[in-house]
Amino acid sequence: MKRGEILIVVLAAVAVGVVALLSAGGGERGGSKDAAEPGAGAVKVSFAYSPEKERLLEPLIERFNREGKESGGRPVFVQGEPVASGEAETKIANGTLKPVVWSPASSLWGRLLNFDADRPLTAKESPSIVRTPLVIAMWEPFARALGYPRKPIGFEQVLRLAREKRGFAAFGKPQFGAFKLVHTNPDFSTSGLSAVVAEYYAATGRREGLTERQVTSPKARATVRDIERSIVHYGDTTLFIADQMRQKGPGYASAVAMEEVTLLDFNRRRGGQPPLVALYPPEGTFYSDNPYITLDAPWVSPEQREGAGMFQRWLAEQLTPERAGAEGFRPADLKRKPAGRVTKPNGADPAQPRRVLGLPEPRVLNRIKETWR
């Protein structure tokens, strides 16, 4: 066989192998192009969810679609898309995003959507997919200087540090420098919004029923202003902030308001940085409850609503504490014990939080955002 003929045969064999490999699919999730396309006559359920749930939800969406479940004799096909909670809220309110189902990180965004859209697009209560509490994430050596784990640490200590010109020197650790707090922008991010609302609750001494009058009171505004003065960065997402902490360590921030799931992910991939520990403010904190919201909107058909309900029930069966915990989340049902990575050695405390704050009314939430600006 001539050299040219041999080359042709080899190239043909390689091409066949590549085609076979692509046809077989690959990767951990095992999806294929065929499996990712809805069949003829399928009920399409568009599903916008917050990005931190992508690793948890994407393989489950693909599995549900492969199972070919039907509603009214038609296959139900879920089309998932990660969208930041604040961005999704704005786009749904102005009509540029029209999902059938929306799962922001927190029900706080659902309340804001109803206010901004001036109509009840979301129900007052929706089932949770998974939960994760807002925590003050602090480098373990810094937290120990404040009395961790013997002493509960919350907004009282944060306020004292924010007002203390000597910083950690007031606690016998001058090498830690000034206190630097970080949280995300509450206009776009759940952890930032939850942190600012929790600051107002702490400033007023309440745990539910926060009012506009209390938010705008001189004492509350002065307390929150002093805490916010210690902010050195407003990141767009806690994922970005976590990356900065991996790169820059304690020089970037002393503490960060973030969700427990983000802290657990940081500690798993912290490199040479000290571990973070989760501080659950005794004044109270929020759960990011990751609601499954089927929108009450004119673009949602009865068939899509029924299909959305079918997927929600299927998802609830799949998301055991073990499956949720593998990605650092807690189960939707607070009566079930956290599992997986939600452990003390990983920086979390499954027995916390002991005090959970009530969601403010939409008008109060909007006033908090306006006052913060």
What does this structure look like?
The chain is α/β, with parallel strands linked by helices. The chain has two domains: 43-129 and 290-331, 3-Layer(aba) Sandwich (D-Maltodextrin-Binding Protein, domain 2), CATH 3.40.190.10; 132-289 and 341-372, D-Maltodextrin-Binding Protein, domain 2. The chain has helices at 3-24, 54-67, 85-94, 107-117, 140-145, 155-163, 190-204, 212-215, 218-229, 238-248, 260-268, 302-318, 321-326, 362-372; strands at 43-49, 70-71, 74-82, 101-103, 130-139, 181-182, 231-233, 255-259, 276-279, 287-288, 293-294, 330-331. The strands form two sheets. Strands 5, 6, 7, 8, 9, 10 and 12 form a seven-stranded mixed beta sheet that branches. Strands 2-3-1-4-11 form a five-stranded mixed beta sheet. Helix 3 packs parallel to helix 4 (107-117). It starts with a helix and ends with a helix. The model is unreliable at 1-35 (pLDDT under 50).
CATH topology of the largest domain: D-Maltodextrin-Binding Protein, domain 2
Principal-axis shape: globular
Number of domains: 2
* Radius of gyration computed on alpha carbons: 24 Å
Terminal CA distance: 78 Å
CATH superfamily of the largest domain: Periplasmic binding protein-like II
